[in-house]
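Q: Give me the 3D complex with coenzyme A.
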Amino acid sequence: MRDPAPTIVRGAGYVLAMDLRIEPLTRDNLDDVLRLPPQAGDDEPVAPTAWSVAEAYVQPTAWPRAIIADGTVTGFVMANWSPEESEPAFRAGIWRMNVAEDARRRGIGRFAVEQVAAEARRRGVDRITVLWDAGHPRSPEGFYLRCGFLPIGELFGQRLGELIV
Ligand SMILES: CC(C)(COP(=O)(O)OP(=O)(O)OC[C@H]1O[C@@H](n2cnc3c(N)ncnc32)[C@H](O)[C@@H]1OP(=O)(O)O)[C@@H](O)C(=O)NCCC(=O)NCCS
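A: Here is the predicted complex, encoded as structure tokens.
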């Protein structure tokens, strides 16, 4: 079977052709997912990847996915689909995301946001949310703003962003 065409990633300073995809966690990709940053003790504005994987095990609404770039596990994204949740901010959105340090700023994070947005549309959801730590020295705020999220408030001391999909 013919391979699908690589995803063309366009940003302000780059145009890259990469074969980008997301896939569920499997016995084959789990080791590589667990090696992604952050590891326990790292100063990153997101929980260690292994914590997220453990949370997904006990939280059936979690939607964890490995991000594969040119055949290599390069990132992790976990969404949450919980339409019955009383807090609107937790009904549909990105819960965790991280990209391998040496693969950042190449459009992989944006690709993951687009994949979550596409999954939202498949589920008949018209908006996704994300919470980020605006005060962290390595805050992902600039990233989420570049991806189109609009800040709509604060929750638990974190900024709440919304993207209409
Ligand atoms: C945040 C993160 C996922 C971004 O992934 P990435 O693959 O580097 O992002 P992209 O290359 O797709 O960037 C998309 C756009 O955001 C911009 N951007 C990325 N990181 C940024 C940052 N820290 N500050 C400002 N802008 C940023 C890029 O320049 C790009 O802009 P452009 O479209 O104008 O070219 C990655 O830096 C990461 O894993 N950080 C540590 C963990 C984290 O903070 N996770 C999010 C918490 S929920």
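A quick observation: The longest strand covers residues 72-81.
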